[in-house]
Design a protein that fits this description.
This protein has 468 residues and is α/β, with parallel strands linked by helices. The chain contains 14 helices and twelve strands. The longest helix is centred in the C-terminal third of the chain and has 26 residues. The structure holds pyridoxal-5'-phosphate. The site of pyridoxal-5'-phosphate has 15 residues, from helix 5.
Length: 468
């Protein structure tokens, strides 16, 4: 038996990460300084202008109490502050006792996937618990991380609900699409799906789901099926000016009043606040099995440590996020920094959206968008016209990791063509996000300041023109 020698090479370490978007994020350090990576859902808009200046520069290095253990799902104060923040964003009172922290929304979702496999207690209303193998419906394209959160350890099965890729309802969610997949799955597998996951605002499409559509979907799911619903609202604050369909939280629907035991919401600091590296997310749920899973139980027959014990909001996060949540602008007692930052974020997001959109239009790059829709942090580029138009390209060093196997070879070629010099722009291929058709790419326009994104668009347009 050979003894392993030395640390593993950085390239091999990245090659071991199967989530393509995460691997692209971690590969950034290896790319030339001229490369622009718009594939990763990150948000730098509020960094310079406000967060560094008004919060991080003000905080002292670690008071002693933050060296020690804290509750892994969040101390009361943190949960209260997050509940207040969400109450404002969701326009509904969020009870702090229903808010439970974890190490990122990816982890919060995993906690939920385990918790929903626990039975309700006698006398507690709720559908039968989920079991390994049960199907989770996800309107597609969707964030590929759901597969890791639901499948890797909780052993549920993700089932895409394909959205139409052509016609007037192109990439629009409808109740029919969900219903069709629900019954198709039953016909093939003899069991009904047990969980519906909606991302609202949507990633990668950006759109808010209208209240009427949500009312219809929730009424059907809660009235006609035994599915739970998870509403991933991690982009809740990512709203531009002049949106025709406003954001409606699942917690603000009438359905929540009747079926609070089957509706669970997640939110985190990674996207709206741009704190992706902090890995802090929250479950909001009133459901007994979820609350017990998140808080832990010491009963004789079911001793369980809180789920977040394995993926905590640790003391360092308590400290830094606590400072962020309590900071005020313009002196003590004035407006909370978080309110100011989210107001400022909306302005910055709207400005960036307008600039980037204009540049896409001027450069003739197609994207899927209906006037008045919310974009959140994304453009969903339609590069289908360039599929199959291969030409000789400059060689560039191959990525040390491979895209997901199911990717269309023409989409993959286009991805590589744009990634390599002289273009050096990385977009996220739509098929990594289970896009039902090839040729769509997600561009995250908050990953850099708008001037840089516009430069990237110029370079992409130049490269695409050579394929015509
Ligand atoms: C819809 C959605 N949910 C969850 C996450 C993951 O959040 P976190 O980084 O807090 O785990 C992402 C990240 O891209 C996302 O897009």
């Amino acid at each position: 038996m050979t003894v392993p020698t030395g640390p593993i090479e950085p390239a091999e370490l990245i090659a071991r990460i199967p989530d393509f978007e995460q691997a692209l994020a971690l590969h950034r350090d290896q790319e030339p300084p001229t490369a622009i990576n718009l594939s990763v859902a990150e948000n730098v808009l509020v960094y310079e202008d406000s967060m560094q200046k008004r919060v991080f520069n003000e905080i002292e290095l670690l008071p002693e109490t933050y060296i020690q253990y804290k509750r892994p799902y969040g101390e009361d104060r943190l949960r209260q502050e997050v509940a207040a923040l969400l109450s404002k964003a969701f326009e509904v009172d969020v009870a702090w006792g229903d808010v439970f922290g974890a190490g990122g929304v990816g982890s919060a979702l995993e906690c939920l996937a385990f918790a929903l496999q626990d039975p309700p207690k006698t006398g507690e209303a709720g559908p039968p618990p989920l079991k390994e193998g049960d199907a989770v419906l996800l309107p597609a394209p969707y964030w590929q991380g759901f597969n890791w959160s639901f499948e890797q350890r909780p052993k549920l099965t993700c089932v895409p609900v394909p959205l139409p890729t052509e016609g007037p309802d192109r990439f629009r969610l409808t109740l029919d699409a969900i219903r069709d997949e629900y019954f198709r799955y039953y016909r093939v597998h003899g069991e009904y799906p047990r969980l519906l996951v909606l991302t609202n605002p949507q990633n990668p499409l950006g759109v808010n789901y209208g209240k009427q559509l949500l009312d219809e979907i929730y009424a059907w799911v809660l009235g006609e099926t035994e599915m739970h619903i998870i509403s991933d609202e991690i982009y809740a604050h990512s709203q531009v000016d002049g949106v025709r369909v406003p954001f409606t939280s699942a917690l603000a629907l009438e359905a929540y009043g009747r079926a609070w035991n089957r509706i669970h919401v997640v939110w985190g600091f990674a996207k709206d606040f741009g704190l992706s590296g902090f890995r802090t997310g929250f479950v909001v749920s009133k459901y007994g099995p979820v609350q017990r899973a998140m808080l832990g139980t010491s009963g004789i027959e079911e001793k369980k440590n809180p789920m977040s014990w394995f993926t905590p909001v640790d003391s360092l996060k308590h400290y830094v996020l606590g400072e962020l949540l309590e900071a005020t602008v313009n002196g003590p007692g004035a407006e909370l920094y978080t309110s100011y930052a989210m107001r400022r974020y909306k302005e910055l997001l709207s400005e960036s959206f307008v600039k980037v959109r204009e540049r896409l239009v001027t450069r003739g790059i197609e994207f899927v968008y209906t006037e008045g829709d919310n974009p959140a942090q994304f453009f969903w580029l339609d590069l289908t016209a360039y599929l199959g138009k291969r030409k000789e390209k400059e060689p560039c060093s191959p990525l040390p990791f491979t895209p997901p196997n199911e990717m269309d070879p023409d989409e993959q070629w286009l991805f590589e063509y744009l990634r390599c010099a002289p273009t050096e722009v990385t977009l996220l291929p739509g098929q990594t996000m289970h896009s039902p058709a090839p040729g769509f790419f997600r561009l995250c326009y908050t990953a850099y300041q708008p001037e840089v994104v516009c430069t990237a668009i110029d370079r992409v347009a130049k490269a695409l023109a050579l394929l015509k």
